[in-house]
Hints:
In the N-terminal section; belongs to the NADH:flavin oxidoreductase/NADH oxidase family. By secondary structure, the chain is α/β, with parallel strands linked by helices. The mean pLDDT is 96.
Amino acid sequence: MASAYPHLLSPLDLGFTQLRNRVLMGSMHTGLEEEKHGFDKLAAFYEARAKGGVGLIVTGGISPNFRGRVQPFGSELSRPWHVAKHRKITEAVHRHDTKICLQILHTGRYAYHPFSIAPSKIKAPISPFTPKAMSERKIRTTIRHFARCAKLAKKAGYDGVEVMGSEGYLINQFLCPRTNKRTDQWGGSFANRSRFALEIMKAVRAEVGSDFIIIYRLSMLDLVPDGHEYAEVIELAKGIEAAGATLINSGIGWHEARVPTIVTSVPRGAFSWITAKVREEISIPVVAVNRINTPEIGEQILAKGEADMVSMARPLLADANFVAKAEAHQSDRINTCIACNQACLDHVFENKRASCLVNPQACYETELVMRPAQQQKKIAVVGAGPAGLAFSCYAAERGHEVHLFESNSQIGGQFNYAKQIPGKEEFHETLRFFTHRLADTGVKLHLNTRQNAESLIAENFDEVVLATGVLPREITIEGIDSDKVISYLDVLRDHKNVGAKVALIGAGGIGFDVAEYLTTKESPTLNAEEWSAIWGIDKDYEDRGALTQPKPETTPREVWLLQRKTSKVGKGLGKTSGWVHRATLKKKGVHMIPGVTYQRITDEGLWIEVDGKEQLLAVDTIVTCAGQLPLRELQQELESAGQSVHLIGGADVAAELDAKRAIRQGAELAAAI
């Protein structure tokens, strides 16, 4: 059978070695790098992706020295005794036909510790520490440390290294006027600003010889003021090629950029155009990155000649067998990354171990293991939301007889509301995955079937799992029974009419989602050109950083997003995506007001008090988004009858709709039951 993805799955000849396909697993820090026995777990993590068919893996960033560490106890490769633990990874990966490179990452002013250094003494907005400006001697020493790190990586069995020159880290800081104010030979002209990058590349190549992969991560779009000019990007790309690079990987945006680059609202393959432009100027292979999460998108980019490889990091967290499924013509079985960041990047920035919302086994390959059940049980699961779906599939995979009951006509629970939010279209993919997974694992699905305690007891189930979800919390305000008042379910489930002026009571995740839903005519996530214009990305690259004036957005409604808390509206949203949600609503003129006391609802609208002053919001519609309560009405009656009952998901804890916790909880119960 001919390959459905002939470009994606074709080998790539690098001269001295060959890659089995065009899929590169991009660098992602997991937190295992710093855990006790973490390298044993890392070895299992990377081996699963190698076994799943990835052509080339790049590890999470490893510092070449102490000052370059991400955090005080961050991982580094700088001494001979560091080699042994890295060899565990390379040996595990090399059991399969996959190559692996170590990413050498010096954070510079992004370091989250007081020993940071940078080309100039300029504090980063994302770190509380001000770096020390590097002396000439420190620059030379750091170049040697990059080369030393590469030499140790080769000794550890890596097939190559990736030199991290983008995302606003140390090398990138030297390259741009934004962070390089030096007046010596390392600053000023671009020839001077690029000297650091080129000297590192030359030193690394000299240390490792010719038969070793060197990837350079080139910042093609800085997306910050005073970043690269396009001509500088091309000049550097040619210099890096001449210095001995094997591949050039794309870098998109600094971490401090106010343009989203990887969250779920970014269109798929939104940045392949810049990789294509750079590829025309050099002769070594280039790699496209960011929001490439299906084999179809990867194939399209390669077929159009925009890149020679495609990089995916989070999609390979979501499904270790991504490539193998594409090879087997089973792409509809891929557990697609929804780019939520909730369990991966958000965890890493909170010094937790990374995982994946849709795949809780990611980075837990040695701990959350689905072994065949010693005793097969007959299990009832009530509720086919994320928790119920996850539990059912994992339990059936282990050999249990699972009956999944859902009162509605479709699976998905709250995901059916989330998938309607502009920018969250990826949630459709999770429901597609579970639809196939239920069938493949043999779960007996009963739709349009409402269960009660009597019917469940009559079937003699060994275990009953309640994944019945949540109910909207009722709130008490004078006039709450007004026809003006509806709940978020009335909006997202029942699609009731909403007026031109709307007040949202509650500014958690649901409030933000409803605000986005009500203020968007057409989702820009489905139109990359429109999305780029809205965020001010200049595809003509006429100014430094490729930034231009953002296109104003029009909105069909005026919306007030209200919360009782006095903290910043949206403070509880994800660390890496919350700012995008706030910025998006701000662009649409949404009024975000904290510290609100709700007084009463009248025919005129909603009366509130803020800072001791009463005011009227003359709105047509008031939508309640003020939290949820667990729906667990069956529990007491079942337990009274002696039935073994388990609560998971919203039925257990009805905090902000938390699919990450729900799916993990379902998986953990399935592994133990």
